[in-house]
Design goal:
seven-stranded parallel beta sheet, binds 2-keto-D-gluconic acid, binds NADP nicotinamide-adenine-dinucleotide phosphate, Rossmann fold, alpha/beta, 33% helix, 332 residues
Amino acid sequence: MSMQETGGAPVEILQTSPFALRSPEAFEATFKVHKLWEASDREALLREVGPRVRGIAAGGKVEIDAAFMDTFPALEVVANFGVGYDRVDVAAAAARGVVVTNTPDVLTDEVADLTLGLLLATVRRLPQADRFLREGRWLKGAFPLSASLRGRRVGILGLGRIGKAIAKRCAAFELEVVYHGRSRQEGVPYGYYPSLVEMARAVEVLIVIAPGGAGTDGLVGAEVLDALGPNGILINVARGTVVDERALIAALTEGRILAAGLDVFEKEPQVPSELIALDNVVLLPHVGSASLHTRQAMGQLLLDNLEAWFAGRGPLTPVPETPWTGQPAPVG
Ligand code: NAP
Ligand code: 8YV
């Protein structure tokens, strides 16, 4: 089914970066898709198609800010590839009557699985053990005994969809879970800490899975890391910006925390050389949701949002800052 405007022309979409789709052919048969990353002259492409673009399929590092949105006077919807939408200026979108959608739920279990894998890898030093074997060092002696997950309390910063899935997995590992967020949640079986520093003081593992953006910038800084303490393990699967990277490097280097497992970084894909040089960190290239199965499900949900919007049914998963008011989109 192609989305036709009056007069027979297909709805035009700007795609900012490549992402997984079960059927890219279906996407391109449904919409006229302009691929920003393939353009030899991006400015020229934007000048040419900007006035006709009604939807943006957003992913990768492109910031969808107010100035970028102004390139598209007919813009109705920004469909974000990912549940985190910190690269989209949702206030600017709301001010323009543009709806923003994201991809919640379809990646929750995948990211939670990865988080437990990263936690185990960090505490039991699995990548270091793998390197030890490959380098032939086992032939000369046993791998040094590691720290243990046993007896640790886990504090979750951000007990949302993914945070709850992580908490369930932690319970299966017989780990006590507590959480911090801006408010206490009714009906959850985990202890609540209104203060992040107090929670860090009470746990030996801190898992960060709150959204990025201005509200959480540098939330985990020196004070929180010092409260976590020399036996403490930090796991960040949220956004690099939530953790003060310089403070983290200092705490790891000086043994003020034990170890860290990081899937995200402040300026990814740039990772500070100081982190790479450390032996008490496990570093992953932002792979929380990165299985084919889950990335295709995310791509499908993005596409379903665009199709629903341009069929006049409204968005399937709008972000809270741009709720759908029930005004149908102009039917294409
Ligand atoms: P969610 O359901 O919206 O949960 C977010 C949680 O964070 C909520 O419990 C919220 O609780 C808390 N929170 C929000 N602002 C906060 C603040 N300023 N201080 C403390 N807590 C705060 O989102 P989700 O689906 O679980 O996803 C969470 C995030 O994970 C995404 O935004 C994304 O950045 C990241 N993520 C990373 C990967 C990866 O590949 N590594 C994959 C998927 C998602 P309160 O409202 O009570 O504060
Ligand atoms: C993706 C994510 O890696 O959903 C998110 O917020 O961080 C990940 O699932 C990313 O959005 C796509 O590059």
